[in-house]
Every structure is written in C-alpha cells, then in structure tokens.
Amino acid sequence: MNTFSLVVNGKRISVEAWPMARLLDVLRENGFTGTKEGCGEGECGACSVLMASRGEARKLVNSCLVPVAQAAGAEITTIEGIAIRDELHAVQQAFIDHGGAQCGICTPGMVLAAIQLLDKTPQPNSDEVRAAVAGNLCRCTGYIKIFDAILDACKRMR
Amino acid sequence: MSGSGDIDGWVGRSVPRKDGVAKVTGQARYVDDITMPHMLYGVTVRSSVPRGRIKAIHYSDKIPWEQFTIVTAANIPGENVIYLLMGDQPCLASRVINHSQEPIVLLAHSDKNLLEAARGGVTIEVEPEPGVFSIEDSLEQKEIVWGSDNILKQYHMNKGDVDSVWPSADFVVEGEYRTGAQEQLYIENNGMIATASPAEGVTVWGSMQCPYYVQKALMRLFALPAEKVRVVAAVTGGGFGGKEEYPSMIAGHAALLAWKSGRPVKMIYDRAEDMAATTKRHPSRTRHRTAVSRDGKLLGMDIEFTLDGGAYATLSAVVLSRGTIHAAGPYRCPNVRVHARAVATNYPPHGAFRGFGAPQSIFALERHLNKVAAVVGLPPEELRRRNFLHQGDLTSTGQEVREPVDLEGLLDRAFSATDYRAKVQSFARSNIGSRIKRGIGFATFMHGAGFTGSGEEYLASIVGVEATADGGAKILVAATEMGQGSSTTLAQIAADALGISFDRVTVAEQDTANVPNSGPTVASRTCMVVGKLVETAALALKAKVAEAGIAGDFSTASAAYIKIHGPLRHFAKYAAPPGIHWDDQSYQGDAYGAYAWAVYVAEVAVDTLTYEASVTDFVALQEVGRVIHPRVAAGQIEGGVAQGIGYALYENVQWKDGRMANNQMTNYIMPTAADVPPIRVLFAETPYAYGPGGAKGIGELPIDGPAPAIANALENALGVPFDEIPATPEKIMTAVRGAR
What we know:
The complex is a heterodimer. By secondary structure, chain A is α+β, with helices and mostly antiparallel strands. Chain A has helices at residues 23-29, 68-71, 90-98, 107-120, 126-133, 144-156; strands at residues 2-8, 11-17, 48-52, 59-62, 75-77.
C-alpha cells in the first residue's frame, strides 16, 4: 500500500491505498458515498466526479476508471462538494424543480455532468445538453426532465 | 412550502418530492453506502454449466480457507428454498443444476480484494446433462427439465365459442410474433446487508421492492417466526420488477453467511453478475388466428401465448396471467380463446419486469391488428375504431367495462397531436429515393392496475396512518420508494384526507418491524390500491379525533389527543370495490379493478445504409384517472417510453450455452440521452371512483405501447413487417433485403 494525497471538495486528505485502487473505491471508503458505482467499466457515469490535475481545468471523469495514483495531487469535486452548506447549486435545485431525479442513483453523476457542461458552455442548446449527459445513463426518467432541468439551470445562472 | 389547510388540496399539484434534496446532494443512503462494524463481504460461487448434477466441490489448496466463511446448502437451518409462489427454487443448489447461474457456495471475508481469487479457487465438478434453450424445444419435451412436462403454468381462457366463427368469417388472418428477454437495468445493482444469529434472528437491509416477500422467504430458509425476521428497505436505486423476487435470494445468501460467521455480511453484485444471474423479462412467442368480417368487425380471436419462464417457476404463473388477460386488448370481440403457457428452459429464471407479461402479448396483438387491417383493406386506425371497447361492453374475461371509455377520442387527440394522417402521406412521398426512410405508427392498449383477479383479496393489504406529536402524520406502508415517487404521492393523498399541509406528512422507513404488510411494490398498485388505503386510514384517523371532541384543526386536535390519550393511529385493510367477481377456474370475471387506456404514436427514421433505426418523435396519451402529481406521473411515462424504445430497438440479450453473453453495459445497449426523441406526455383524466382522489395505476402502462408503435412505424417506413423485437440493424437489414 502507498500513501496518496488528494484534495477532495477543497480539503486535503491522505489515503492508504494500492496504486491501482479505483478512485471510486477510495472516495467511497473515505465517506464520499454520493459517488455511485453502476457498471465499473466507464459506461454508466454514475461514478462521475470532477477532477482537476495540476494546472489543468477540471473535467468530468469516471472515477471507476481512474487509478488513485493518477488522481494523486489532483483536486476532486464530488457531489458532496456542490451545495454550499444548505444552499443548493442551481443545477441541483433545477433537478428538484423539474423532476430530474427519480431513483436518484444516477443523479450525482448527472448533476456533475451538467455542471461540467455549464462551466464550459454557459448557454448550451438542447443538442449540447444531450451530448453532455450522453455518458450518464438513467433508467427512470427517459432523460426528458433532466434536459429540462439543465436548460432551466443555465437560465438561473445567468 | 406553505399551504397548511390549503383548500385547493395537494392532490393534482407537482409539489417538491420528499426525497429530492437527499438525492441531488448525494446524501440518500443506498445499501452499498451502509457499513457496519466488523462487516464481512460476501460473494457467490455459481454453476458453470446450465444443467447437470453436482458430483463434488473442490477447494484449491492455494487459498487460506480458514480465513473465509464458507456456506453450502448443508448450512441452511431451515428449508433450502427461496419461497415465493412455489418451493421449486433452491437457495443453494446441492445436487441438481438447472441453469448456468445456480448459486452453490457462498464465501465471505473482511477483505473484499481477496474474494475474487477465492471464488476462482472453488471448482464445482459437474456431470453435465443436455439442456433446453427454446420455447419450441421445451414444448416438444426434448428433455424434461421441470415437473413432468416442462409446463410451469397454463391457462385456458375462453369467451364465447371461437370455433363456431371460422366458417362464417370473411377473412381468417394468422400471424406469429416474438419478443426477446429484456434486462431491467436499474442503475443500482442488487445488494443486501445481513446480521443473523440464533438468538437475535435475522435482519437484512437492502435494495428491494417487496420487504414482506423477503421476510416470507427468510422465515422458511431459517425456520424462524415472523418476529425474528426483520427486513428494512434502503433507498432503492430503481427496480422495474427486477427487485421484486431476486432480493429474497441475495438476502438469504447474505443472511446465511452472517448466521455462520456471526458478523454482518454485505453482498453487493457487480453489474456483470447482476445482469447474468438476476431475472429478466420473459421472452415470448404469440400466435394469432383471427376471424374478421368484410367490414372489419372482429368475430373471433384464437391466441396461443407462450412465455419462456427459465429454470424455476418464480413468478411465471402471474406474469403469464397478466399477459393472457391483456392478449385481446381493448377490443370488443364475442369469441376469444387464449391458450397460455409458461414453459421451463435452462436459462436463469425470468421474472417480473414492468408490464409483467402484458408488453409481450400487447406487442403481438398490436402488430397483428395492422396485419388484419391490411387484409381487410382498412387503415389500421379504422380497423381498431370499429372494434374499440365502450362502457357496458365485455372484455375478453367477460368483465363489464363500468367506467366511461373513449378510445376514439384518445385516438383523435393523439393523431391530432402528431399530425398522423398528414405524416403518413408526406413520409410516403419523401421516402421515395431517400436513403433515410421515415415512418409513423401507433398502438392502442389498456393496462389493468393492481393484482389480477382475486389477488388483492388474497393480499389483504394493511396500511397505517399515525398522528405525530407535532401535529403531523406518518404513513406506515411497506411500499418502497424506488424512484416512482410513492413517498411523495402517498403523502399528498394523506395530506388531503387529513386537511393538513403536505410538509407535515412523512412516510415511515419500510421496516417490517414498524410497518404493516401493505403488499409488494408492484403491479401499478401503490398509488391506486395502497394510496386508497392511505386515504381510508387517514379519514378514519381524522374521524377519531373529531369524535374525541377536541377543538381545532387536525394538527391542533391530534396533538392534544396524543397528550391526553397517547398514540393515535389507524390501520385500514383492503376491501374489494363492490360488485367485483373473479373465477380462477374459468379465468372469467373482473380481472382488474380499473384499467388505464392509452394511444401511443411513434415516428421513426431508418438509415438504409446502416439499417439503424431511431425514434424521432413520440406522443404518449393516456387516461389514468386523476393525476396525483403531474410531474411525477409524466416522469414515469417518459421513463417507461424510453425503456420501451430500448425494448423495441436496442436491448438484445444474447444467450450462449444458457448464459447471457453480453452481460455488460458496454454491449447490452439501453437508450442514452442521445437516443431518446422528444417525448410528449398527454393525460386525459376520468376520475376512478375507487382510487384515491380518483387515481388509477400508471407505473407499468408506458412499457406496453412503445414496442408495437415502433414496429408499426418501421413497417410504415420500410414496407416490410417487423414481428420480432428487438429490431436490431441486423434484423432490419435481413427484413429489407429478404423482401427484395
């Protein structure tokens, strides 16, 4: 086992792990259980987190495909780091208002994918919204209310 | 949200979901998010062949087995069975193997990283036997793999005398239709945590739809009374039927490991195991023979409906029942015969999946009616229009339609929303010479809500509503929240019955130690049946407070009541609506308390270079009684339509030697955000007298219509029939080239 240092939601943590341990497991074992496992092979996006390696802009990654060694020193944002105390992010509030969450298991990843989109493209069109969450599978909603939520969130963030 | 004592009521409003904040912030606790001190992890060693006899179990000498907890059938304290309707399915196979995923040995260890190697260190020595892998081979009894004749269940449903009509019919139209297996593909895999000991009994926490089914199974497995078996539903990440029966198996496995080790045991399936081992939608074959008059009147329908049930009976009998009752659709026909069979094969058992047999038989019928229309020379909508059921007519089970039904009106509205007739003409023109062929198709159908026939009476569900000391109320039900919004809609119903704010109503955790058995969370019954009981219990609770003569509104009076008299709660038990009769022998009578009625219209585009089909527009119009929560209801429909699109076009379970070969999200393809069309959900609301606030069931309905509507649209686009789903590019290519 090795010791790795990561910054998760703005706080530095130190973890004991094998270098090839999945970032997903490391996060979950350290209490960030909002990051979900759906498939373990990068298809469903339930384990999506935002990761910023040194000097780079943050990007959405499937944490099931990221070895912790690769995440060492990076800044990770999980769903637990999105709301500021009790104040929900506009995307989270829009998911509630539009029914974007049903069973909720894909929701953390969806919210992070939406935030990643709005980081880069503050005023996306509906095709850009679809493309942005096309790597996040949802079996409950048929995606329609997720699209509505994301388009409304970007209006609220203007 | 304000609105205490709101005179407009809460039913009918899209209030914020009770579980919304926890889910968008990642705070909702699913089973895999729970850990316990000294917890072990459990895994399952399964068969590698689909049929055979176990000769020996070998444990590799490279594994330090003394560190592991090992469980086999010999360690089961009670009966080795996962009991549901029948006792044919073992919890752990000890001698006979009937499918490739048969569980045989269970292993637990505190370090989950060591378990995979250990699982590989167990070898099951099997004497293989030939298996049965198709409906045909099972019916021909190539091998007898279940009972004396491979028939898990059969029904003969008979209305009138179908054999009397063939001579006088102007046309007799025959067809055969097939549907494939479908994986529920909830995004949260199955999982359980158990603690167990002879002194304390068994407790499990997990992802499930039916806490009391799990309790019933564990009681047999451990030979324990109900009070020693406690089942708690964690937040459940989707079910769709896939967490109706299999959770009893996983709970049993986790509990056996906990019983032996004396420590909590967590078993979480990974995706590959979940897809390979747990239940799927039954594959089907339906044969229709229909007598019809020159003017398009249905005279007789002879239907042979067959489901592949897999290796054990599980829920096949009731899946078959629902499929049988829906096989003749919302049409008036004096003579109907359905011979329905569920047959055994050596696939892992097929089971509950949203729609529960109805999507299969409705696919067949709605394809077949287009064929009948073509033979008669009528447009498909005109043929249906001449045969729609109306108030006062009898369904195929002889059930009188007591409520007003306006399928013509629904058809007109759906066609006008889609501009159907104009599109039929414009696509026919624009397809000429175009690589992209476009088409439009529709399906008209009904879906019965609640358990079939006398099922609700047998269930005899009980629901409680309890006043809380702060003037609110708590709903006590075993219905689990798996995303469908039950914790919200049931609270709306109770709030209106009590005349208090929605914010003051909560739904208790589904813990068999604290909530009564309100039945399983299945069959589109939660809102309609359980919701009605919530309404009844809440009204009785309110009456109890009023009788006590304490002044003030419910909140004030109930709080005062509790101070004086102590706990205040009321339990309501299911009673059938008046005039409901069902005969299990003849399969005639009132099959369901209420039906939802629907017209779904799909537009497709097919690229004739790649033969890929996509759905480009979709309208889902349904009459579901009063809509309790418009946003939740629309979300249910949209999700069901997307799942139906997958069923029709993409979701192709590939079997090899009796096991699922593509048990990965990489190559079992469900619709993504890039694949779904705009889905327009439209409601017609005719309040149902025996539903809460006038509501009927809704959850399963949307999976019935998309597949036939899409297959009909494909035929419209390409001019060749599509009688088998999924219509993958390979099948579309074969159909188009074969037609040349």
